[in-house]
Amino acid sequence: MKTYLILIFILITCLLVGCNNEAPFSQHQVKTVYLNTSSYESNQEYQQMLELINRSAKAINERDSKALLELFSDKIENSKNLALSNYDYQAKIQETKLLKLDQPIFQTNETDPNKTNVSITVEYLEKDSKDTKKESRTYYCQKVDNKWVIAFID
After folding, report:
1. Do residues 98 and 81 touch, judged by C-beta distance below 8 A?
2. Residues of the chain with pLDDT under 50
3. DSSP labels for the chain?
4. What is the pLDDT of residue 21?
5. Closest residue by Cα to residue 139 from 125, 98, 126
6. Cα 49 from Cα 51, distance rounded (Å)
7. CA-to-CA distance for 32 and 27, rounded, in angstroms?
8. What is the top-level taxon of the source organism (predicted)?
9. Domain locations in the chain?
10. 137 Cβ contact list (under 8 Å, min separation 6)
């Protein structure tokens, strides 16, 4: 009887405390909320830029540098180098998990309509942290060969 009580105590403790030791932002525990592109159906260019931002966040979360680099252009000087540096910092050093992308604000360049800045609010976790952080990020988008790409992220 005493053995059963000890076993039940251990099971209850595991359930209450948690038996797994996965990182706080395990893919199984947290689902990312991406930007709502359907809100911009009337403006296909804005919609395309938001899709680029969503794809970049997905690439960071999935640790897929190749998918991230596809969103940038070789025709923009240092664009891919900066993207890779940003990726290394977020994915490898800080082990960032993006949780929520929200509140896009578009600012079209008045002198060059092929350049638009999209500022968003990002909620994220970093390794060894259980507290979410929130910051504003700006994605500098540019039309290259009649296609929107990310020039760089600030």
Report:
1. no
2. 4-7, 11, 13-28
3. -HHHHHHHHHHHHHHHH-S----TT-TTT---B---GGGGTT-HHHHHHHHHHHHHHHHHHTT-HHHHHTTS-TTSTTHHHHHHHHHIIIIIIS--EEEEEEEEEEEE-SS-TTEEEEEEEEEEE-TT--S-EEEEEEEEEEEETTEEEEEEE-
4. 41
5. 98
6. 5
7. 9
8. Bacteria
9. 23-153
10. 119, 120, 122, 153, 154
pTM value is 0.80
Amino acid identity at 38: S
Give the position of tokens 């403006």. Answer: 43
Query: Do 71 and 151 form a contact (C-beta atoms < 8 A)?
Result: no
Tally the residues of the chain: 154
Residue type, 95: E
**pLDDT value, residue 65:** 96
What tokens were used for 35?
Answer: 């930007």
Asked if the 23-153 domain carries CATH number 3.10.450.50, the reply is: yes
Q: What sign does the dihedral 49-50-55-61 (CA atoms) show?
A: positive
How far is 117 from 140, CA to CA, in rounded Å?
5
Over the stretch 67-107, which tens digit does the pLDDT of each residue have?
A: 999 999 999 999 999 999 999 999 999 999 999 999 999 99
